Every structure is written in C-alpha cells, then in structure tokens.
C-alpha cells in the first residue's frame, strides 16, 4: 500500500515540475530524489521552445500549430537568420549574457572590435557559474545580437565575426 502512495506523490511531484518548467519559461529541469538506499526517483522534464515565434502563431489556439510551422520555415527566414551566417558565434549554453567582466567595466567586444581566436567575447552566467565565451576565429565583430543582462538559449547567435 505504501508503494501506491509513493507513486501517487511521484506523479504529483512530476506534474509540479512540469508546471514549474512552464511557469518559469524553462526548457529543461532535472531532479533526483533519494528515498532509501536503493530507492530513488530521477526525473528529467524538458520541452522544445521555438526561438522566435512569428506573431501570427500567438493567434492560433491549436497547440500543434507552432511546432508544425517550426518544421517548415519560410525560405526568406532562413536567408535572414543570423545563426546561419558563416561568421556567427552561437551560445554553447542557456544563461544570462554579460558583455563586460563587471558592471561599469568596458565591454569585452563592441562592433568594430578586432578579436583573435580565443579572446573572450562575453560571459554567459549559468547556475551561478561565469562562463567566458571565446572567439572561435580571428576577425572583426560586425554585429552583436544579444543584450547585456539578457537571457540566451543554447544555439542562439551571439555575434557575427568576419
């Protein structure tokens, strides 16, 4: 009988995690609960988030509609996508972007900055860890596609270096 109660509480726990994921606009959540020596629950809840939904999708009530349009992007959108640019530097993680080492300091890179491969372009803070994002190649910063203090998703374009 105790096992049935444990399963019911696990189900409600997983539902609460899914709600937390949605309410905080997260893409993934992983939790491990240890009950006893050989009894634990390891849960990973994730969802696909479309990076830049088109405005008309907000008007479509069917939940499958945004996913369907994500599979068939318009040809023009692909050509204008900064992530498709050969000089794009994309985010290796989800986090918060910081353009300088500390508030008030000079930014690591600005439009027109000449960088060498390995130079720090910006910092992405993820789970209280400051991750320095290096330039993957030498060149000149042509475009900066993120804002200081703004959120960034995995794979999102950060800047263009040519």
Characterise the protein shown here:
Pfam families: Biotin_lipoyl. The chain is an alpha+beta fold. The protein is elongated, with a radius of gyration of 21 Å. Helices cover 22% and strands 32% of the residues. Residues 53-58 and 64-78 have low confidence and may be disordered. A hairpin with a 2-residue loop joins strand 1 (28-36) and strand 2. The longest helix has 22 residues, at 2-23. The protein has a 4-stranded antiparallel sheet with strand order 3-10-8-5, with no helix packed on it. The protein has 2 domains: 2-46, no CATH class; 82-161, OB fold (Dihydrolipoamide Acetyltransferase, E2P).
DSSP strand (E) fraction? 25-35%
Largest sheet: 4 strands, antiparallel
Helix content bin: 10-25%
- Secondary-structure element series: HEEHHEEEEEEEE
Query: Any idea what the radius of gyration is?
Result: 21 Å
Text of the CATH class of the largest domain? Mainly Beta
Oligomer: single chain
Q: In which order are the strands of the major sheet placed? A: 3-10-8-5
**Low-confidence runs of at least 5 consecutive residues:** 53-58, 64-78
For CATH, the homologous superfamily of the largest domain is named as: RNA polymerase II/Efflux pump adaptor protein, barrel-sandwich hybrid domain
First-residue to last-residue Cα separation: 65 Å
What's the total number of strands?
10
Q: What is the CATH architecture assignment of the largest domain?
A: Beta Barrel
CATH topology (level 3) name of the largest domain: OB fold (Dihydrolipoamide Acetyltransferase, E2P)
Mean pLDDT: 76
